[in-house]
Write a structure and sequence with these properties.
The chain is of the alpha+beta class. It has a domain at 4-25 and 68-152: START domain (Alpha-D-Glucose-1,6-Bisphosphate, Chain A, domain 4). It has helices spanning 17-25, 27-32, 119-152, and strands at residues 4-13, 39-44, 52-59, 62-72, 78-85, 91-101, 104-116. The chain has a seven-stranded antiparallel sheet with strand order 1-7-6-5-4-3-2.
Length: 161
């Protein structure tokens, strides 16, 4: 088994690329709307390449803490690089392409996850780790899709509490 796991997942979203990219980039909205139910975010001071945030994620009975640096690329894609914590070395690249699903315009969100493997883990648990990461990436993409489509509906009205 090689030293890296790379997984790609595509998700079609019924909104324009600018709307989807804006939802993806808005960390405050991601925290307040609880886009990913088992995740808490805390923004940190910006790093040398862009925004940084701390991610606290619940996975079963344990909580993981990671520091993530966000890079916005010239082509419009976004790269989240985990710089410390239990997911150290992982990167998630999100690309946004205009796409049509039949007669409806929308966006194809292409997510690519790259995770380095420790030498012993790669040999013993590589296949299990890959399946676990695939499930995690599919859930992540489905949460993004549900959030964007829920907020993009024009008939939805916000109520004051």
């Amino acid at each position: 088994m090689s030293g890296f796991i790379e997984i790609q997942h595509d998700e079609w979203v019924a909104a324009g690329p600018d709307v989807v990219r804006a939802h993806y980039l808005d960390l405050f909205h991601r925290e307040v709307a609880r886009v990913h139910p088992r995740e808490r975010l805390r923004q940190l001071a910006p790093g040398p390449t862009g925004p940084r945030f701390e991610s606290l994620a619940r996975a079963g009975w344990r909580t993981t803490r990671d520091v993530v640096e966000r890079h916005q690329r010239a082509d419009g894609s976004v790269r989240d690089q985990f710089v410390s914590g239990t997911r150290w070395g992982r990167s998630v690249v999100a690309r946004f392409y205009r796409s049509n699903d039949g007669a409806r315009p929308g966006t194809l969100v292409e997510l690519t996850l790259t995770q380095p493997l420790r030498p012993l883990v790669g040999r013993l648990l590589g296949r299990w780790e890959r399946r676990r990461l695939e499930v995690e990436l599919r859930e992540y993409a489905a949460d993004i899709k549900a959030d964007v489509e829920r907020g993009h509906r024009t008939e939805r009205k916000l109520r004051a509490a």
